[in-house]
Amino acid sequence: MSNMVNQLKSSASSLGGQGGQTHPVFRKKLQELAWALFGMGLYYLAARTGMHLFALKPSNITLLWLASGIGLVMCMRHGLLALPLIIFASFWANYPGMAEVHRSSPLLYTLISATADGMAGIVAMLMMRLSLPGGLTQAQDLLHFGIKVCLIPTMLSSLIISLNLAVGGYIGWDEAVDFFRMLVLADSLGILLIYPLYQAWSDDRQLRSIEVQRLVLTSLGVGVLLYLAFRGHPGFIYFILPVLLLLAFYVNLNLVTLILAVSMVAIIAMTGQQLGPFQTSNLVEANFMLVCFVCTTTFTILAVALHNRQLLRIEAARQEWQLAAEVDALTGLINRAAFLPMLEDEHQRAKRMGRPYALALLDIDHFKTVNDVYGHQAGDEVLTHFASMMQANIRGIDKAARLGGDEFAILFPESSASEAIIAMERLRQRLESHPILTAAAQVFVTSSIGITEYHGGDITPDMVRTRADQLLYAAKHAGRNRVMFDAVTDETA
């Protein structure tokens, strides 16, 4: 008996080991299936909601089909796996209404329409991947998105559904054209509102407090405008566009698409309940006015938001390149190219204001020996540590730079040489008494420093720098590990 128990334990342990190897893959597949099933449920809820909330009475023409946008997202995430799920969800949502009409073969005609919905998602996915593989990145992408991703797939599916319902007797042949047109508009609007929202939140899920505050204030403003527009003051509906435009400049795309989608859905839902400014005796004209307003508002806001995000990315890239051009990659200090203009600016300001400034030039004594003995990796660690010590011993307004190799400089605005000496002597003493721990060994180094002061006169920045350099070499020739200083004058320059 004990042998059998041991064998079972051994087998379980073996299976657990095998399962441990495949578990992450299995878990990933399970999560993907769970999300796909969640999408199917969401598709069904959106379809049923559209039938009840976005349908105009008495025609029951649905003005917005958010399920089409959800179908595209499902196909983008899960590929062909989404097709049977969309078909099932569409069939489940549409069959009760089809069965109530008491026509023959409701199962067949519902299945054809549901299959057309599924194929629309697949075609939209293929068009998206072919024409916009990187997604919506700039305002110009909206044209391709609107035509290739929104219109073409929905026109194909709407044509199949309209012919299917006309053949089955669910709608008259004289109604087929209007029905086709409204299907195209409703499905296209669903994709236009849902997919940018999905992409924006996939790209950036961060919620910054200032942006959330602006979103809340904008939401309250839009809510007030909607209330006024749908309670007897129709002109207020047109103020929603400039409010959303302002929001597009101040918050990220994810928050813009969220408030945009909610606002447009609210407008269509209230119109479906026979409220608001889009109520006229001519139903076709009312539908056209509503769709035009929603489409133009959505395209305008998305275009501005995408263009603003593109400009922000360009500016961020420019600043990154500028930073890379001005900052020493090893030490994080500003480099020679950035330091010399700062010295020029401070020189002119000091000359204009009659205030002094000090300039210190530093290098590490026998740095070549450090590289030769401990290697260049240790040399880089010494340079990095030296730069950190420099930063720790100066004020916030002082500018530390690496000019090249082991040559460093510090600009002391509004300071005399005697004030700069205090910081530099403190740095020299700390460097002398504290070895630098590198991967190779503890390295003891010292520094020679030359400091000069400008306090007016016809002296150029180059003369100031030359005098500091002379003092640095005087410190080295005097035995190194010391600070030499004086004020630059016409005679010394």
TrEMBL record:
<keyword id="KW-1003">Cell membrane</keyword>
<dbReference type="InterPro" id="IPR043128">
    <property type="entry name" value="Rev_trsase/Diguanyl_cyclase"/>
</dbReference>
<dbReference type="Pfam" id="PF05231">
    <property type="entry name" value="MASE1"/>
</dbReference>
<dbReference type="Pfam" id="PF00990">
    <property type="entry name" value="GGDEF"/>
</dbReference>
<keyword id="KW-1133">Transmembrane helix</keyword>
<feature type="transmembrane region" description="Helical">
    <location>
        <begin position="236"/>
        <end position="253"/>
    </location>
</feature>
<feature type="transmembrane region" description="Helical">
    <location>
        <begin position="107"/>
        <end position="128"/>
    </location>
</feature>
<keyword id="KW-0472">Membrane</keyword>
<feature type="transmembrane region" description="Helical">
    <location>
        <begin position="179"/>
        <end position="198"/>
    </location>
</feature>
<feature type="region of interest" description="Disordered">
    <location>
        <begin position="1"/>
        <end position="20"/>
    </location>
</feature>
<feature type="transmembrane region" description="Helical">
    <location>
        <begin position="210"/>
        <end position="230"/>
    </location>
</feature>
<dbReference type="InterPro" id="IPR007895">
    <property type="entry name" value="MASE1"/>
</dbReference>
<feature type="transmembrane region" description="Helical">
    <location>
        <begin position="33"/>
        <end position="51"/>
    </location>
</feature>
<feature type="transmembrane region" description="Helical">
    <location>
        <begin position="288"/>
        <end position="306"/>
    </location>
</feature>
<feature type="transmembrane region" description="Helical">
    <location>
        <begin position="63"/>
        <end position="87"/>
    </location>
</feature>
<feature type="transmembrane region" description="Helical">
    <location>
        <begin position="149"/>
        <end position="173"/>
    </location>
</feature>
<dbReference type="InterPro" id="IPR000160">
    <property type="entry name" value="GGDEF_dom"/>
</dbReference>
<dbReference type="InterPro" id="IPR050469">
    <property type="entry name" value="Diguanylate_Cyclase"/>
</dbReference>
<dbReference type="InterPro" id="IPR029787">
    <property type="entry name" value="Nucleotide_cyclase"/>
</dbReference>
<keyword id="KW-0812">Transmembrane</keyword>
<feature type="domain" description="GGDEF">
    <location>
        <begin position="355"/>
        <end position="488"/>
    </location>
</feature>
<protein>
    <recommendedName>
        <fullName>diguanylate cyclase</fullName>
        <ecNumber>2.7.7.65</ecNumber>
    </recommendedName>
</protein>
